[in-house]
Amino acid sequence: MALENVFLDAGGVLIFPNWHRISDALARQGVTVSPSALSAAEPHARLMLDDHKVVGATTDASRGWLFFDLILERAGVTLSDATTAALTELHTYHVANNLWEFIPDGVRPALTAMRARGLKLTIVSNANGTLRAHLARIGLDRYVDYALDSYDEQVEKPDPRLFEIALERSGARKESTIHVGDLYNIDIVGARNAGLRAVLLDETNLRPDADCVRVRSLAELVERIDEGEFD
To answer: Nearest to residue 102, comparing CAs of 31, 204, 13?
Structure first.
């Protein structure tokens, strides 16, 4: 059956933390680390977080701040009262506005290309209740057809129920839908348990062992769609 629908995670696929805002918050506490160092550390921290035991013992909210501790450690920053104060400030901002506000250059062209091919796009994200307003604030809402926020639905990935809600809400069929995410034990496991094919976005090639389709970018995803890989 021809591909008709693409489900996409938000954080780690379409949007990323605002590293400049994070660097500035740390600097106000006397901690010096560049935005580029934080960005380079992020994929490695994500890999450490992407463990089935960690996923099983945490929620999206608690994983989020463990994630930033891992990023700081990977970037060579010693955790301290100062880093805690900076992260507390950032958490306040995130609750109100959503800290994931950096959009890589390739995102909009890839979304535009997929929609030009007649594909329906649905965001399926573990989020904090601000996702839809946030997408409108940063201008991504116009590129997608639906957006599901786990906070609003009261269920989060890897629970397959969030994907089932997305299927019902978007009118998509499992057989003609793929899900693209950045965390194997959340996105790939959850999508498969809902009966969907899953694609792992692995930009830095840290998961060559993953038993699923991997792409290094959304542009590569579009190329593989054009090649008919998902039909």
So the answer is: 13
